[in-house]
Amino acid sequence: MVSVTDDDVILAGLDKLDCGDIPCVETFGFKSGGITYGGSAVVMKLPITAFQDTDAPPTHAQISSLLSSDAAWSVSPAGYETVRSARPVPGELGVVCLLRSPTKEKTALVRLEYGNGVTTWAPGALDGSFGQGTSIAVSDDGNVAMTGLSQTIGRWPQSLDTVARLSLFSGVDGSLKWTRSYTVGGVPELIRHECWGVVAIQKNAGYVIACGTGIEPEQCNSGLPKAVRANCTEGIGDNRPGAIPRDPDTWQAMSVMTDADGTLLWQRVDSYRPHVDPAPLGQNGGSAAEWGTLTSEGGVVLFMDDPAAGSLGIMKLSPQSLASGNGSGKGARVVEVQ
After folding, report:
1. What angle (nearest 5°) sits at the alpha carbon of residue 200, between those of residues 194 and 203?
2. pTM of the complete model
């Protein structure tokens, strides 16, 4: 995770990787939402001049020298294996970090002083039933939005209900203000919804979250009723008229926009299709919205993971489309990058 301010670069992730019995080279083939396999959380602030003054990146020795000065700092929160996200607080001297614990995949928030990395508040790990946090964004009022997912036991043995989650925390003390869940309908035990990125719209106008939706093969298990299991293997997670079948493991990008209170304004599901001879919707490759950022004119760009297409998908939502109430409009499109 990298955040850049006018004067500094904030780096967040892990150090001292320890994969246990699994060779570390095998653990990074697919790394969803910043999940690691052992390590020590670390966040550091470095002056941007360390990256501007030379064509080559700073060496380890140069960074170590910087960290011993007043211009930079490094913090390793105890008991956490990685920092999934770190964001500077607009207009204030602080950095908010999202931490991941190796115990039951718990997550926690911590705010650090911008100048020296000293902890301002740290409410402790969220309860495991709350859900898994994957990324954060700090809105103009200083509050912290966290996206992710949560799971509950489904109606049948071995089934789970996995839904997209957006929560808001106080920028004053890190306390929970509210949490909301979002789905696309259908049979919740079959269709999973997971979110990995969140964008705070300017002037506290709400949030756009970057998600994926689809059926994972292991969900079509023997614990489901026969008819439900048959639908699952055929990619029918939604029996409503007009719903598009999508084979298990064929994920699609889901983007959601809410107002400042988390109330749903619109959501959309976008299918990857190649430029030449496009296949029917839901039948060619998969995609998931992994990350988002504001554009200079106030729109949002979402970056898609398109492994089946061997490419990176990019969807741009113009400011007009954000305000249209359905996420559509000129400028909303998905393109392929070879």
Report:
1. 155
2. 0.89
